[in-house]
Predict the structure.
Amino acid sequence: MSRIGLVIAFLLLLSGCASHSSLIIQPYGEISIEVPDDMFSSVKVRDGELLFLRNNRIIGFVKSDEIPNTVSSDTASETSKALYESAAQGSSKPIWIESIPDAQAFGVVQGDFRTIFIVPDGSAQSLITFQGPTEGSDSARINGVKVSQ
């Protein structure tokens, strides 16, 4: 009887896990972004960006850029602080995303969208930008850490 209970529990666990899948994107060597697949219906690559679409409408993106020398510093921490201070001048205030392994990250919520800026610890000249709707992007993960602000 206990075997049947274990089998049923395993099947329920398995079916529950199967419904929560995500797309894993690795825009930089040590950085991975997990995006829940219910956030979008398709993806498209355009001009070096990975675009998320829902009903053929762009609802978010991931892109990687080089930071201009006027902004970048010797360390990722200094570069991300400079970017954070620049973002703080806007109408929406940025919030640090703590505990991201191998990166410095902060996010800004503006209207229905969240934009996250990620500077990899290994490169003070690289910037990864992730944007998505607030209702789906709060379950995204950066290097395994849930994005919640």
Remarks:
- DSSP finds three helices and eleven strands in the chain.
